[in-house]
């Protein structure tokens, strides 16, 4: 069990460090040589850029876009769930939660491809769409947890004492449901990573020559026989981060 | 709640979902700047000509009228024509459907027995070394993006070892099934992890329940207790998860077709989105969306039949 956690931490930390600090080790000007030759440590990519530099640069978008999108969907989903769960009137609850069932009914990746493929290109679009498709899952979990809490006698007592709803929500309900939400966090982060990386790989919402691990896998696939590292290294980093996040958070939940 | 009533309620929700999908797909195209008339008018559009085309195509009608007409054509099977090639959209669907169905169907066919067998296998050894290894693997791998997994497998088995073809480029999947091995393994990875975990958890619960303990005390054989009594109860949550995995499967198919250059619906969709060929995008989106809604509907009803308590909350 300890071994699994250690393994998970390594898988989580290595890509994260490369993503955050990698760009500081890359010279500002891009040198271009011939495409797909085995020079340097990892060779060159499809337009002759150094693969090592691209790997150091390309984690920021993949990792950070996924994290920002997750943060945003919690920021929207949790308050939504609180209002729904603490609503005195049932129709308000239904009004807030039913539309989410419809988003859940369609494959997330399909929505992302359609909207991000049509909307103006850029990471803002990707963040927004990923947040929209992951809000329903978070809101559902948060609502179920908050519903249980908001029917407790303690909360009823506070209500009778005339505490404001705001204080009830953030002073009592949020701290009580927080562990449930954190338990879910690992799954949500990897789900966002999955969507962001898959969309980038399909060329949706990103520039075709962007320094991005997923874009690298797509673009350098043509040179798989010549410079396998240009494809395998970024792919392995994406896999490592996804597996690492899951192992570490799963472990944190069991404690 | 009786099965009939539940099925009716669920069907109603399904209809609303289908309608919502249709509205969303229609509005998605409406939200685009410029319309088909501008696209048809060429590089240097003359406003009078654009207006004439618009009137001829009925684009000057109010939104609701056009939605009604689009819906009406859709029901008759008329999906319009590609803006790029002028081919009917229905042809795109007919071309890609067999390949995509083959991929998704093969994966589903392998998924059900393998996840149940694996889940039951580790549940009967809960806490042991095999269980710990399999659990760690299913937790770790369940959200790995298909393209990353695919490319690593291709580099290993297709390039380094040369055992399997690295792409399906130019091959007929039916004549040369070897090209399908890697795609199906990649598609299988995520759902297999999810369903195996669920079967394992449900089976562990079932094995610890009172009725299983009672059956054991009656002297029934272990195999009989496990497979005839515990297993059926453990399967209801797995059926619902199985339906949820069709969401992933449909998303995954798009990615896997792109990685292995398989000419299916996913490839058509990605190409159409890249080329802004909106009628094709609409047609494919409707097909994907409606399929998902229907599969989920079916699974919810089946799960309700298997364990009425579990589904009654929905």
TrEMBL record, chain A:
Signal peptide: none annotated. The lineage of its organism: Bacteria, Bacillati, Actinomycetota, Actinomycetes, Pseudonocardiales. The keyword Transmembrane helix applies. Keywords: Cell membrane, Membrane, Transmembrane, Transmembrane helix, Transport. It comes from the Bacteria. SUPFAM superfamilies: MetI-like. It comes from Actinokineospora diospyrosa. Belongs to the binding-protein-dependent transport system permease family. The chain crosses the membrane at residues 7-26, 62-87, 99-119, 125-146, 191-211, 223-249. The keyword Membrane applies. It is a multi-pass membrane protein. It is found in: Cell membrane. This is Peptide/nickel transport system permease protein. InterPro entries: BP-dependent_transpt_permease (IPR050366), MetI-like (IPR000515), MetI-like_sf (IPR035906). Residues 59-249 form the ABC transmembrane type-1 domain.
From TrEMBL, chain B:
The keyword Transport applies. It is found in: Cell membrane. Residues 97-299 form the ABC transmembrane type-1 domain. The keyword Flavoprotein does not apply. The chain crosses the membrane at residues 101-122, 134-158, 178-199, 248-268, 280-299. It is a multi-pass membrane protein. Keywords: Cell membrane, Membrane, Transmembrane, Transmembrane helix, Transport. It comes from the Bacteria. CDD domains: TM_PBP2 (cd06261). Belongs to the binding-protein-dependent transport system permease family. This is Peptide/nickel transport system permease protein. The lineage of its organism: Bacteria, Bacillati, Actinomycetota, Actinomycetes, Pseudonocardiales.
């Amino acid at each position: 069990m300890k071994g699994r956690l250690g393994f998970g931490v390594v898988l989580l930390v290595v890509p994260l460090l490369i993503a955050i600090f990698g760009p500081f080790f890359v010279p500002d000007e891009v040198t271009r040589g011939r495409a797909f030759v085995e020079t340097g440590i990892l060779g060159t990519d499809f337009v002759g850029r150094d693969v090592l530099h691209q790997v150091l640069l390309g984690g920021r978008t993949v990792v950070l876009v996924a994290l920002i999108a997750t943060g945003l969907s919690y920021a929207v989903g949790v308050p939504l769930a609180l209002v729904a769960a603490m609503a005195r009137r049932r129709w308000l609850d239904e009004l807030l939660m039913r539309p989410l069932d419809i988003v859940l009914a369609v494959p997330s990746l399909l929505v992302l491809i359609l909207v991000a493929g049509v909307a103006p290109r850029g990471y803002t679009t990707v963040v927004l769409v990923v947040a929209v498709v992951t809000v329903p899952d978070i809101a559902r979990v948060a609502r179920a947890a908050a519903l249980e809490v908001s029917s407790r006698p303690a909360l009823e007592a506070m209500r009778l004492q005339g505490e404001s709803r705001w204080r009830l929500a953030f002073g009592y309900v949020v701290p009580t449901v927080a562990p449930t939400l954190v338990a879910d966090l690992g799954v949500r982060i990897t789900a966002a990573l999955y969507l962001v990386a898959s969309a980038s790989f399909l060329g949706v919402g990103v520039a075709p020559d962007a320094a991005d691990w997923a874009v690298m896998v797509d673009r350098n696939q043509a040179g798989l026989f010549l410079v396998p590292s240009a494809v395998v290294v970024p792919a392995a980093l994406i896999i490592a981060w996804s597996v690492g996040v899951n192992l570490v958070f799963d472990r944190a939940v069991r404690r | 709640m009786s099965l009939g009533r539940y099925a009716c309620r669920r069907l109603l929700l399904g209809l609303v979902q289908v309608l919502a999908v249709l509205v969303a797909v229609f509005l998605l195209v409406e939200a685009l700047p410029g319309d088909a008339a501008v696209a048809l008018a060429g590089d240097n559009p003359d406003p009078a000509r654009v207006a004439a085309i618009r009137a001829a195509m009925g684009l000057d009608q109010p939104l609701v009228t056009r939605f009604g007409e689009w819906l009406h054509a859709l029901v008759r099977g008329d999906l319009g024509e590609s803006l790029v090639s002028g081919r009917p959209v229905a042809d795109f669907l007919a071309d890609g459907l067999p390949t995509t169905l083959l991929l998704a169907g093969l994966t589903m066919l392998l998924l059900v027995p393998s996840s149940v067998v694996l889940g039951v296998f580790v549940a009967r050894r809960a806490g042991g070394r095999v269980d710990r290894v399999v659990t760690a693997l299913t937790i770790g791998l369940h959200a790995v993006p298909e393209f990353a997994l695919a490319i690593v497998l291709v580099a290993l088995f297709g390039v380094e070892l040369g055992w399997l073809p690295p792409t399906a480029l130019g091959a007929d999947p039916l004549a040369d099934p070897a090209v399908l091995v890697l795609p199906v393994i990649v598609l299988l990875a995520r759902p297999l992890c999810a369903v195996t975990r669920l079967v394992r958890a449900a089976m562990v619960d079932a094995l610890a329940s009172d009725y299983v303990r009672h059956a054991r005390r009656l002297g029934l054989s272990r195999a009989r207790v496990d497979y005839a009594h515990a297993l059926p109860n453990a399967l209801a949550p797995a059926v619902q998860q199985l339906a949820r995995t069709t969401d992933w499967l449909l998303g995954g198919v798009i990615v896997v077709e792109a990685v292995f250059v398989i000419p299916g619906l996913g490839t058509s969709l990605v190409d159409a989105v890249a080329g802004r060929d909106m009628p094709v995008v609409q047609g494919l989106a409707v097909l994907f969306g409606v399929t998902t809604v229907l599969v989920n509907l079916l699974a919810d009803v089946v799960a309700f039949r298997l364990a009425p308590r579990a589904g009654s909350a929905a």
